[in-house]
Amino acid sequence: MIFVRGCRARALTAAAKSRRVYYLATISKGSGKLTYKNTKLCKVRTITTFISLDNNKESWNDKIKEASYFCLNLTEELSRNEYTVQSIRIVTNPFGEYLNTDNLETARRDLSYLSDLINSFDISGMRIRFAIGEARTKEEIELLPELIHEFGDLCNVCVNVNLDSFGILDNDLIQHSVKAVQRISSITPRGEGNFNFTVNFNCDPLIPYFPASYHRKELGDQFVIGLETPDLLVNVLENYNQTMEKESHNSQFKGYYEVMSEALQYHITTINNIIQNSTCDKPYGFAGFDSSAAPSKNCASMVDVYEKMGVDYFGSSGTVEASSLLTKVFKSIKGVSLVGFSGLMLALTEDTGLAKGSINSDFDIRSLLTYSSVCGIGLDTVPIPGNTSADKISALMRDTGTMAYRLNKPLTVRLFPVPGLYAGDLTVFESNDLCNCAVLTVP
Q: In sequence order, what are the beta bridge partners of 43?
């Protein structure tokens, strides 16, 4: 009987594998539905260049212009191959290496000069976002609220918090960062300026997504491609569920992994081939892809992905397991270098489904931190009560940072203390990048 059961189990496994092969062949042909090869399902969220500036302001024009037009030329190349590029981004080495940071006025004067340069380039209506690298000292961090208030999306910036010799996070740097978060909240409308500031833990350079991006000049000039793929993931899961018969849980999850990985691999390979075969001048080294799904309010929600995988709702039992599988998908890509997060992004106020889930009380801030243990990014764009104490915010950052180093994964904290709002209140953000959601308490 044991032998018979073993044969039957192997036969069922072979049948399931055969059906998955048939599924992949079927959706490649189309049959009237969108297929995973449809370029509309995979957008290029960003072409991000990483450059180094020095305190010779006369050299800034050529460096910024070269980066801008390189991104524009590559955008046109991708467009000819039917891939949409949503944004152009430029990231620099730490701003203390090229801005005059003697005081706020000197820093403001230099950043104003830099912003004028960026705004002077004609790049066919493409959106340019700019990151000034990392702040490394108390004095530099103290400059950030006013600079972010004045320059907004041309002043994305991060702080990298490391461990001391005893393996404990640098709490002084965390506390200085918390003061900056609170100050930004108080001087920017609705606290939205914190969209441009984050605290990084265990994050390497060359992250293409803001504001965690930073660069080190010893790496040389590089560029990275970041994608927006929730529409792709929802499409392949939906088609898979319609095509396949009900299988065991394990077989189902293996199937989900295979079809999502296959679809993502196809587009990354295709885009990589476009880049490698491009005739446009490439003055930067190609560092690779960040394979994260990078949801936004203008595409499918990651919540839809979870539901297609059989999770009742994001936050219910099964969410951690599905998060782990998705992370495995993003890490599965072969034939290219993966950089940045290359993991699951759960950005609360940039994802309509997550925003709705916060209103329904489907999860809390501790749940989001738990999911980070198997995926990535940490606590991103999370609105909290405006009167949350600095001690609580610091402790939350230390929890996130401890997890980042203990589990060896890149995590960030980007919080929005919203003036005048309390736990459960709804935000009234006006930024085109943000969804409105419920304010989460910090226990």
A: 228
Task: Please choose, from the candidates 232, 366, 418, the residue with its C-alpha nearest in 3D space to the C-alpha of residue 308.
Answer: 232
Give, in order, the Cα–Cα distances in Å from 165 to each of 159, 169, 171, 431.
Answer: 19, 9, 13, 41
Q: List C-alpha distances in Å: 318 to 56, 131, 230, 310, 314.
A: 54, 37, 19, 8, 9
Asked if 244 contacts 48 with a C-beta cutoff of 8 angstroms, the reply is no
Six-digit token pair at 313? Answer: 């709702």
Quote the CA–CA distance of 259 and 50 in Å, as a whole number. 33
| Residues in contact with 394: Cβ distance below 8 Å, sequence separation at least 6, in sequence order | 171, 174, 175, 178
Nearest to 228 by CA among 272, 293, 290: 293
Domain 41-346 has what CATH class? alpha beta
Q: Are 331 and 376 in contact (CB under 8 A)?
A: no
Nearest to 340 by CA among 195, 180, 196, 158: 158
**Cβ proximity of 431 and 204 under 8 Å:** no
CB-based contacts of 434: which residues, under 8 Å, 6+ apart? 192, 195, 297, 349, 350, 381, 427
**Residue 209 structure tokens:** 């997504």
Q: What is the per-residue pLDDT across 227-246, written as a single tens digit (0 to 9) for each?
A: 999 999 999 999 999 887 77
d(CA 419, CA 106): 30
CA 416 to chain centre: 17
User: Domains of the chain: which residue ranges?
Assistant: 41-346
| Inter-residue contact 287 to 337 (CB < 8 Å) | yes
Three-state secondary-structure class, residue 343? coil
> How many other C-beta atoms can be found within 10 angstroms of the C-beta atom of residue 257?
16
Please report, for residues 63, 73, 125, 205, 230, the alpha-carbon distance to residue 88 in angstroms, rounded to integers and kept in the order given.
15, 11, 11, 18, 20
Task: Please give the Cα distance from 418 to 190 (Å, whole number).
Answer: 6
> Exposed, middle or buried, 380 (CB in 10 Å: 0-12/13-18/19+)?
buried
pLDDT in tens, 24-68: 444 444 433 458 899 999 999 999 999 999 999 999 999 999 999
Alpha-carbon span 248 to 149, nearest angstrom: 53
Prediction pTM value: 0.90
C-alpha span between 141 and 293 (Å, rounded): 30
Q: Within 10 Å of residue 25's Cβ, how many Cβ atoms?
A: 9
